[in-house]
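fyi for ur records
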Amino acid sequence: MKFYPEGQNENLLRSFDSLEDVKIAMINQSVIESRVLLCDSEHNLHVDLGIIRGIIPREEGAIGIDDGSTRDIALISKVNKPVCFTILGFERDDFGNTTAILSRKSVQLLCKNNYIDKLCEGDIINARVTHLEKFGAFIDIGAGINALIPIDMLSVSRINHPRERLYEGENIKVVLRKREPDKLTFSLKELLGTWQENADLYKAGETVMGTVRSIETYGVFVELMPNLAGLAEPCDYLFEGQRVAVYIKSVLPDKMKIKLVVVEAFEESEMAEDLTYFISEGHINRFDYSTPNAPKEISTIF
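which gave:
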């Protein structure tokens, strides 16, 4: 069975027309997805299965809820978002209404044991951005199991906040950077190309769009791609995150430098754009960002 981040596989979304179909899904232990309608005062998640309503009891909401290693905010934050689950059984209330009892935790345990625990450093997988904090991006790596991309692993070009690179709900590719007993750390920048791969998209004499990333006394660093930035002459009227049009004076691979001139500055700040991947599947053992003759070697060894 293949595991996906929640909301990434539309084939799992189900709405049942008959109770018999719900029972068949329970017998087959089918993995299903549905949007959470509400999280009640006891932090049980309620979902709509079509013919009946389903409830994911708090203790079945996620791995770690029962022992406190996962906080209840992980359940509260799922309202109006898709979650995966299996059907454990049924309950009937005093009014004769039938409710399906569901388990999200069971799918997470399957995903962990059969997929996540088998990942090796350097493996590239699908993920979904769930939450952005100043220090990094939280991602769903399968069945709602979260991991982190630290902000310095989002790109070679430095950013002040992950929202400058990603947006919540975005489907992305990531590579497993480090495996520890209690957590997995992922990276994005190794998939976004080397200096040369990015620089090959530009030529001297072109005028292109970029984003101001850093303003120094000696010049302004302008990002052309997440893994590529150039240096323009000092400008007093710019601000970090500002979109600018720049003229490319020269591209110098041996020095890993691109010289720019700011042609025009725009009032709007940058919004996260679609990423360009230079590798998007399989496994990598080493990533050499720098050019062969560059004065400094920049590499990642997995």
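The mean pLDDT is 95. thats all i got for now
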